[in-house]
Amino acid sequence: MGTNSPYSSSLGVLPHIHERHHENFFSFKGRTQLWADKYNDSEGRLLTAGDYGSVPTNTTHTFQLLDPDTELVGVIVPGGFEDLFYFLGNANVSYATQTPFVPADVSDSAGSGSSATIISELESFDVYAQLSFTPRRDFVNGTAPANATWHDGSSTIPSVAGTPYFLASGWGPKYLTGKYGAWQIVQPFVTPTTGEHDFTQCTITLSRQPANVSLPSWNLTDHTALQVLEGGLKVEVGNETATLIGGDVVFIPGGTAFKYQSVAASSKVMYVGAGDAGLDQQLLKSARSWEYVSFPTYWP
Amino acid sequence: MGTNSPYSSSLGVLPHIHERHHENFFSFKGRTQLWADKYNDSEGRLLTAGDYGSVPTNTTHTFQLLDPDTELVGVIVPGGFEDLFYFLGNANVSYATQTPFVPADVSDSAGSGSSATIISELESFDVYAQLSFTPRRDFVNGTAPANATWHDGSSTIPSVAGTPYFLASGWGPKYLTGKYGAWQIVQPFVTPTTGEHDFTQCTITLSRQPANVSLPSWNLTDHTALQVLEGGLKVEVGNETATLIGGDVVFIPGGTAFKYQSVAASSKVMYVGAGDAGLDQQLLKSARSWEYVSFPTYWP
User: Rounded to the nearest 5 degrees, what angle is found at the Cα of B159, between the Cα atoms of B17 and B174?
Assistant: First the structure.
């Protein structure tokens, strides 16, 4: 779910928890403050383009958009949580110009001014307001508390489920494979463990397909979604072929054959897949640990 | 000039000035610290994607790349400064995989370890080392000195030439025109004044072309360059048509007819043009001041 918005001087939503949904924040552009509080650890991070935050169930969280041109991509598992947005929205709008967001200063009824009635109604959507939670404002250089590692050292993914975590763009674990022709660098956001085997998420940076290696056809049990972050991706799904550019998304139902390749020297896509044996896990089988966001100068 | 690189624990280049060249830093991705010192004012900013820094002549400046996946787009006026990079480069390399940068930790001979011989040679390229300059390290929340306005209020462009300045993405001046069919939002980086009538630079955010308005053909006296930042741009130059995606560049010599349109609901391009009567200035003639990075819901 992509959400565009200008900055706000107040929280984008009342602090709350989800009892059943795992929420994943990916910063597509602009700057967003994200807070996550669980297990007596209250953390805040300033997300810039490419950064990620994991908010598992029963984590008190909220966020605030800080730039005039901010876009988040939210992955919320299991499916169905989008019903909340249909409930909160005024109408199923469709503008002639397809503007990313209405250019106007609007108050958000889901924000800090929510009424008691709405707060109560939201519980049926798995949104439980945490009215006693005050997000810490002692950010220094992108983190609260100060001096947390953030864009100045490795970001790590917990080895257990349930703990909130943040990954700075390019600072997380990286794995390289050339098994399928093109170089592919997998940067996991959500592992089978932290996704509780319901979903995984990562970015894949890929080179062009070398001319002498035929493009593999994939057919995965579970659903796959790809969103282009950089460059462009030519995708064949069943009998359809499309070239996706920045921001475009392809959804591939489980059991459907598909192929993909970069149409640029280097492209980067975000992967989200159901289950714990999706495209990322297939690529990781042949991958080795890698220190860089760029691929080698030579072919595999 | 696009430059990709991983992070470095030291300055990317010795502090220096240019006596004849105006250097412009645009942050394409990742994070970069940029310092500019002139007129007894020493400023540093943390640039994230979309931010811009202007370094006019006789400004002591340097920079440091902070993220594993950092890319800058440099505009250096007048032309010819690229000879420095040919001098510093080891070879005119061409890698089979077209990797954005060689995945290796390399030291930069233009960096703080430069020899006296190289420092002397660089002067013939209009690079004058300022060995007594120590960049301030007292950054707090993206600025040095602390508490400068940066991503938390308007960025402004000086009304006179020669002064260094920084513009946070989306926080600078914005102007909207619908005169040519599509909505276009111009966000200036360099005005005729600050570019000393040699060049101007801006971003243009544009909607699709409405079906009932024919696409205008432009023919400008001076050279034009466009780089796609978001979405995609279909460009016709002379008899050629191409669709540009993120990172792609088109250069249009002065006196050449061209047309352009967005192939996405919203696209954003960076414009650089010679002189002081380029595309940006033509668009601004019919534009009004605008508060948003998105365009209206209705057609002009």
Answer: 105
Residue A94 has a pLDDT of 87
- Give me Rg for the CA atoms of chain B: 20
Residue A22 known to be catalytic: no
Q: Do the bridges between strand B16-17 and strand B128-129 make them parallel or antiparallel, or are there none, so unpaired?
A: antiparallel
Of B21, B22, B23, B43, the catalytic one is B23
User: Which segments in chain A show pLDDT lower than 70?
Assistant: 106-114
Select which of A23, A43, A71, A223 is catalytic: A23
Report the run of H or E that residue B280 belongs to, with start and end.
helix B279-284
ipTM of the complex: 0.95
Determine if residue B39 is left, alpha or beta; phi over 0 gives left, psi from -120 to 50 gives alpha, anything else beta.
left
For residue B140, the chain A residue with the least C-alpha distance is A141
| Locus of tokens 């420095």 | B84
Q: Among residues of chain A, what percentage have pLDDT more than 90?
A: 84
The predicted-structure confidence for B46-95, as pLDDT tens digits, reads as follows: 999 999 999 999 999 999 999 999 999 999 999 999 999 888 877 778 89
Asked if B98 and A6 come within 8 Å (Cβ–Cβ), the reply is no
The 3-class SS string of chain A reads: CEEEECCCCCCCCCCEECCCCEEEEEEEECCEEEEEEECCEEEEEEECCCCEEEECCCCEEEEEECCCCEEEEEEEECCCCCHHHHHHCCCCCCCCCCCCCCCCCCCCCCCCCCCHHHHHHHHHHCCEECCCCCCCCCCECCEECCCCCCCCCCCCCCCCCCCCEEECCCCCCCEEECCCCCCEEEEEEECCCCCCCCEEEEEEEEECCCCCCCCCCEECCCCEEEEEEECCEEEEECCEEEEECCCCEEEECCCCEEEEEECCCEEEEEEEEECCCCHHHHHHCCCEECCCCCCCCCCC
Q: Alpha-carbon Rg of chain A, whole angstroms?
A: 20
pTM reported for the whole predicted model? 0.96
Q: Which of A151, A178, A181 is nearest to A166 (CA)?
A: A151
Report the half-sphere exposure of A50 (CA within 13 A, side-chain side): 27
At A75, which amino acid appears?
V
Tokens of A17: 């928890």
* Chain A residues closer than 8 Å to B265 by CB: 98-100
Q: Is B240 on the interface with A (CB under 8 A)?
A: no
Contact check, Cβ <8 Å, B266/A99:
yes
B31 touches chain A (CB under 8 A): yes
- Residue-wise over A224-251: b if at least 16 C-beta within 10 A, else e? bbbbbbbbbbbbebeeeeeebbbbbebe
pLDDT in tens, A129-142: 999 999 999 999 99
Q: Is B198 on the interface with A (CB under 8 A)?
A: no
Assess contact for B68 and A170: CB atoms under 8 A: yes
CB A283 within 8 A of CB A204: yes
Between the CA atoms of B138, B140, B144 and B148, what dihedral angle is there, to the nearest 10 degrees?
-150
The residues, ordered by sequence, that sit 6+ positions from B142 with a Cβ below 8 Å of its Cβ are A141, B45, B46, B150, B151
